[in-house]
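Q: Structure tokens for this one, please.
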Amino acid sequence: QFEQSPVSMQILSPDGWTLRVNRAWEKLFGLTLADVAGYNMLEDRQLIEKGIMPYVQKGFAGDATTIPPVLYDAAQTFAAGRECWTQSFIYPVKDETGCIREVVLIHQDVTALKRAEQLARQQTEALTRTLSFLAIEPELDKFLGQALKTITEQLNAPSSTLWFYNPATNVITLHMGCYDSRIFPGTVKTGTRDNAVIAYDVHDCTLWNELVRTQQPIAKTLDEFTCNSQLSDHYPWLTAQKIQSILMVPLLVDQQIIGVLSVHNTERTYFLPEETELAQALAQQASLAVQLTHLAEQAQQSAVIEERNRLAREIHDTLAQGLTGIIVQLQAAEDVHTADPEDRQAHIDRARTLARESLMEARRSVRALRPQALEAADLYGALSTLIQQKTASTGIEMDCQILGTPDLLPEEVENHLLRIAGEAITNTLRHAQATRIRLELAYENGRVRLSVQDNGLGFDPDLPVLGGFGLIGMQERAQIIGAQLTITSRTEGGTIVTVVVALDEAPPI
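A: Here is the predicted structure, written as tokens:
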């Protein structure tokens, strides 16, 4: 039973030497019992450097112990070893006198889970970078180039291309591409011409009709792609890169396709679901960038600037904060002290929930609608939900109180107060290393006062803050509703953000 067990098992002597291993152990680490003949677990430098040795010593002292997940590289110690993520359980076996006879070490391979966590975190960070770039970059093509580079790097693809559709001519044209980490314009070398503009009439094109009908990503092998005679000019360029499969993601605006993001793969396989989801997210960002540019072309410059500032604030206060929360949850899942697989899965599930909520809020923000939280509850209820969501599973103590008799506030005032509170809480989570957050909403003498206080590290408000768009956004929101914003902070003394609105000066309901 020991040899045939599907669970990796290792039996050690009380002083740390390996006595027996089963086949599952050999498969997990790529080693045999002979390979570890001179190995003593209690002297393993990797376990010492990774902070795992205290758990091991506790098990050898007589207590059953769970060791947190660790990336262990057996190849550093044994030539035949391999790298893998494992979570281990130590069970000391005692004789009738209570002395330790041997120590049983059981390993659980969590490599797939940890790689999924790392991939999710990398993709979230990639989306955060492109969102930040969208908020500050006024030139459309620079942002689109950044999006193409991001998707090419994240999917480890040799190249990607971006196409735009002109409904007046029924033609789709290559706008730009990314190859070898460089952006090139919408021309390529064909079999007969250099720098040829690649454009296709999509009339009767089966691939295009499938995209229009489903409005969902589709993946095709190169043979399936080029069976459409309309796309034959593109074939030599793809074959030169040894492309075997292509992922096409539609760019949508108001349920209409304005273009296609195309990602290429050198393997004759389809794309993973998480890769397709990332491509969709970046395609949505590209669509948003196109919308913003069209707005800039159609509106007066002052109106454009105000609208872009609004969108930048909404992006920062919805997606950027939501993605920060996702990163916090993924970091908690990867934390060396998060030993329980169910606990890690709970963090990952929470990250998924935050991602869905952030996407819903982004859609509402672009349309300038009332935040979802304020549609489901009053201002105090929305604030309570906000702080609970942002501090969930962080270990931070929270306190949310309401004082006085609530007055009916204009929707615009409630919206900006909620966003200011969200930014204050996000700054605390990101920078302050606080253990407690107190939120207070007070109605007093014809005015409403909102304060967010933490006991974190604090900062000097007079010094410039790098990347401090959040503080600027809070100030702009306070000005819009005629409120007074005060930030009181001192190094290692915590921070208090207070915003006061005189109700008779607030925008009309």
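A few notes: The chain is about 45% helix and 25% strand. The CA atoms of residues 127 and 282 lie 7 Å apart.
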